[in-house]
Amino acid sequence: MATKNGFFRNAVDALVEARQRQVSRYVNGALLMLDDETLKSHGYDRADLKKRGGAYYMF
């Protein structure tokens, strides 16, 4: 049985989703500042991080 979410629940869900995307871009941007050797040693690929985007925010 599916329940219908209310207005405030939908608003909070949208806010959380937007914040998660913002944090993901921030982390990708921070990772892109590392050198290729460090990224590779931790299982990241610079090209993949660039595809996902990066941003720098002052919180």
Output the keywords:
mainly alpha, Aminoglycoside phosphotransferase
Oligomer: single chain
Coarse structural class: mainly alpha
Q: Major sheet: size, sense and barrel closure?
A: none
Mean pLDDT: 87
How many domains make up the coordinates?
A: 1
Rg to the nearest angstrom? 16 Å
Q: How much helix is in the residues?
A: 55-70%
Order of helices and strands: HHH
Gross geometry? elongated
Give the tally of β-strands: 0
Organism: Aquibium carbonis
Protein name: Aminoglycoside phosphotransferase
Task: Give me the secondary-structure topology.
Blueprint: H1 7-32, H2 36-41, H3 46-52
Structure explained in plain terms:
This is Aminoglycoside phosphotransferase. There is one protein chain. The protein has 59 residues and is mainly alpha-helical. The protein has one domain (7-52). It contains three helices and no strands. The chain has helices at 7-32, 36-41, 46-52. Helix 1 packs antiparallel against helix 3. It is elongated, with a radius of gyration of 16 Å.
